[in-house]
Amino acid sequence: MTKIRKTYTKEFKVEAVKLVLDGKQTLTETAANLGVGLSTLGRWKSNYLKANHQTKTAFPGKGNLSPHDAELKALQKENERLKRERDILKKAMAYFTQVPE
Predict the structure, then answer these.
(1) 83 or 4: which carries more pLDDT confidence?
(2) Which of 1, 39, 63, 91 could serve as a FRET partner for 80 with CA atoms 20 to 30 Å apart?
(3) pTM value?
(4) Are residues 32 and 55 in the same domain?
């Protein structure tokens, strides 16, 4: 039997985390009242706090990277390209510096 995964909107996540952060309810109470898993709500809270209470970076959405992760991925891609260029130049330099017999 396949289990269907629930999806929640960014607004729902933010409001759930705010209930916990305001101190009106505990993490356990909020999770039970909203029908969300305790670990799920804890992860939302952690993401929200890491993003410094900015909802755009806390919950980037399905398939989207956070700005930090997107920048890291772009830098890694550029690094790979530069390594390939360096290797080509090394081979070309070795070829052109060979002494003809």
Answers:
(1) 83
(2) 63
(3) 0.54
(4) yes
